[in-house]
Recover the amino acids of this structure.
């Protein structure tokens, strides 16, 4: 694998990740205002409670066969991280890719995830310095942003769980650019964005 850059940056919420697909305005300010939402990937589990451990995960680097039919209905997705109370909320990808883009995004998310694990192993878990992080793929074509939201602080552990959940979603449902909310239990603690600077060659 090539060089990889992961750097904390100062958070400027209005301009930090201009290339990301914005989070839709129809996202609720509080998911819990309408009752107990469940995980799209585990409908019998209430979002924000500990989700079951997946058979396919980044830890094992095992892959499920790519979906050929839409695995999740269009609209809002609440995707829970494996063995965690962390979950992502986002709009489903309109035209998911199951080819070269999916492969590139999965490799990039895998690299970010393992870089976060190395950070935790080396320095322990804690809040992400300056409230945000930015990562660029080795090719420079893909960018990822994670940052604080809702007057909460995003930790490396929650960021890792959010990346693991997004990797699993894109592995199962196809890949594409998007923005998402990161929830830890009943609190929205962060936001994320994955963008492509230009189409893959």
């Amino acid at each position: 694998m090539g060089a990889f850059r992961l750097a904390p940056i100062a958070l400027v919420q209005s301009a930090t990740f201009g290339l990301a697909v914005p989070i839709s305005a129809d996202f609720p300010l509080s998911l819990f205002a309408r009752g107990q939402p469940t995980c799209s990937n585990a409908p019998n589990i209430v979002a924000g409670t500990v989700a079951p451990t997946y058979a396919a995960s980044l830890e094992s680097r095992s892959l499920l066969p790519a979906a050929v039919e839409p695995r999740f209905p269009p609209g809002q997705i609440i995707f829970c991280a494996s063995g965690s109370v962390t979950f992502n909320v986002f709009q489903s990808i309109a035209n998911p890719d199951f080819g070269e883009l999916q492969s590139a995004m999965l490799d990039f998310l895998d690299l970010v995830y393992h870089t976060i694990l190395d950070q935790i192993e080396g320095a322990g878990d804690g809040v992400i310095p300056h409230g945000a992080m930015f990562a660029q793929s080795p090719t420079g074509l893909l960018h990822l942003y994670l940052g604080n939201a809702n007057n909460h602080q995003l930790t490396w552990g929650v960021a890792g769980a959010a990346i693991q959940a997004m990797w699993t979603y894109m592995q199962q449902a196809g890949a594409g650019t998007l923005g998402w909310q990161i929830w830890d239990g009943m609190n929205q603690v962060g936001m994320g964005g994955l963008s492509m600077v230009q189409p893959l060659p």
Summary: Residues 1-30, 60-69 have pLDDT under 50 and may be disordered.
